[in-house]
Design goal:
By secondary structure, the chain is α/β, with parallel strands linked by helices. The protein contains 20 helices and 23 strands.
């Protein structure tokens, strides 16, 4: 059977007034029209019918920046997302300790002291009081700051006299004693001594994440998983096997820069792959996160004037990393939250231009604190802004204390980027933020938390709902070099659809209440509620 007729849907975009049904063949949209006329065209041919029953049909949503491996881990780990106080966080940890055999690691994630009342972070003594029989390692919501107990420090070989690494730090109290906090690449000492999951566990983690993404209406994700999977060969094998087992989910793989030599040895290039799995840009970090004050600002933090944040590497080294990626035929995708970090990576990109051979644009990831001069430089480069609208809901209003009122003009300035003509792709950065794409769209449109009713934080930067949907459809397609393949509902394009129960353009509340009825990938029903 080569044809599938999807019928009786409310199509999004230009085809809304021209039909309610779509004929798909070999994963491609062959015809769009009304059900009756398409059924006549298919007369005498064998075909399958899928009735959308009046549901709303969006182009397949794609998360342009997330971590499938970490999201899969989150689904199985101690998750502090719901914690509203330090005491609640510690109570959750205490409960996990009670059911964990002594000696085993306890791993948790998504604690956020800015969501706590009062704003307090547990210290090493409080963790030790709960357990000295388990190493405890807890990841902040930003994934740039961590918290551990004394047993974890002991296993990592870190003591009070251990010097900070070049690109990280161990938190200390006013007397110089370890307080349990760990910043940036200082975390490597802890992750290196944690048990390595076997191949089966890694594969299960990726499968779990992909199935959850499909449940939420995502047809594809741009992801970076090598820090978890450990090798390019393992990454390729897992996704190949999952596809052979019937999992219908597309991935665009960013390559963490320490794995670039392995990619080169396998003669892989940006764009290598197929319709289900493709190699993307080389992923790098220029700075940290605002929450832990490790994002690199050009001027000191307003609430901590002793620091401007942290550059992960000096400018000459960043330049060399970009040059190496260029020599291997790759664009780069660089985490740069602060304006100081954005200046550094733009300088490196300007020094080592992107050739057409790469086939894909560079990415400036996050770009939460920018300046007018930086935006002008971005316009001149073949790059996209890889943004995460949901950060607005999580970071405001406390981020205003961090950066100060004088830096708000280009703070999470998605509207200004679009108006400047810079292509923008939308993602969640899950598991740092919820994977649900409609929460990201809601944040882009309202500039507020779901429970808040006000004009929005920096309301001039609000997007309309169609601009916000564009981030997760055509914006993501442009980032992957697939604008001719995906991003809109059109004849000849891939049959990727996110089918939902309501018109999300009718109200902001609709974005919060929406239910996914069906996720179709390459003409295959990959999820049905």
């Amino acid at each position: 059977m080569t044809f599938v007729l999807f019928k009786h849907g409310r199509l999004y975009g230009d085809w809304a007034s021209k039909g309610d049904s779509i004929v798909v063949q070999h994963g491609r949209i062959q015809a769009i029209g009304y059900a009756r006329e398409l059924e006549l065209q298919l007369s005498g041919k064998e075909y399958e019918t899928v009735d959308w029953e009046g549901a709303n049909v969006l182009p397949g949503l794609t998360d342009a920046h997330m971590h499938l491996s970490m999201h899969g881990m989150k689904l199985a780990m101690l998750d502090f997302t719901s914690a509203t106080s330090k005491d609640e966080m510690l109570a959750m940890l205490r409960k996990r300790v009670s059911v964990t055999p002594p000696g085993e690691w306890i791993l948790g994630l998504n604690w956020n002291e800015n969501a706590f009342i009062p704003v307090e972070i547990p210290n090493i003594a409080e963790l030790d009081a709960i357990t000295d029989q388990h190493p405890v390692y807890l990841t902040r919501t930003c994934f740039h700051t961590f918290l551990a107990n004394s047993e974890a420090f002991r296993r990592a070989g870190i003591h009070e006299n251990t010097p900070n690494p070049a690109s990280g730090a161990y938190g200390r109290d006013i007397e110089g004693r370890l307080n349990g906090l760990i910043y940036e690449e200082a975390s490597f000492a802890f992750t290196s001594v944690q048990p390595e999951p076997d191949y089966s566990a890694k594969k299960d983690t990726i499968r779990r994440a992909c199935l959850d993404a499909l449940r939420l209406g995502l047809t594809a994700a741009h992801t970076e998983d090598l820090r978890f999977l450990g090798s390019v060969e393992t990454m390729q094998r897992i996704y190949k096997e999952l596809r052979e087992e019937g999992l219908a989910f597309r991935t665009h793989q960013l390559i963490y820069h320490p794995f670039m030599e392995e990619v080169k040895a396998q003669e892989l290039r940006a764009g290598t792959g197929n319709e289900w799995f493709k190699i993307g840009a080389i992923k790098m970090f220029a700075d940290g996160a605002i929450g832990g004050r490790t994002a690199l600002l050009s001027e000191p933090y307003s609430d901590a004037p002793h620091t401007c944040g942290m550059a992960i590497q000096p400018q000459p080294e960043l330049n060399q990393m970009v040059a190496a990626a260029r020599a291997a035929g790759f664009p780069v995708a660089v985490h740069a939250i602060g304006d100081g970090a954005a200046h550094m990576i733009l300088t490196a990109m300007e020094a080592h231009g992107l050739t057409e051979e790469s086939g894909l644009p560079d990415r400036l990831i996050h770009g939460q604190v920018l300046r007018a001069d930086l935006v002008k430089r971005m316009v001149k480069l073949p790059l996209i802004a890889d943004i995460q609208p949901r950060f607005v809901a999580s970071d405001f209003p406390w981020v205003l204390d961090r950066v100060g009122k004088e830096r708000t003009e280009y703070l999470y300035a998605w509207k200004k980027l679009l108006q400047a003509g810079i292509p923008c792709a939308g993602g969640s950065d899950a598991p740092i933020e919820p994977l649900n794409p409609f929460l990201g769209i809601h944040a882009a449109v309202t500039r507020a938390k779901p429970e808040e009713m006000h004009e929005g934080y920096l309301p001039a930067e609000k997007l309309d709902v169609h601009e916000a949907i564009h981030l997760f459809t055509m914006g993501s397609a442009v980032a992957a070099g697939e604008a001719d393949e995906r991003g809109t509902i059109a004849e000849g394009k891939a049959a990727d659809f996110t089918v939902i129960d309501r018109d999300v353009s009718e109200s902001h509340q609709a974005l919060l209440d929406v239910k996914v009825r069906m996720t179709v990938v390459n003409g295959q029903v990959a999820y049905r509620s």
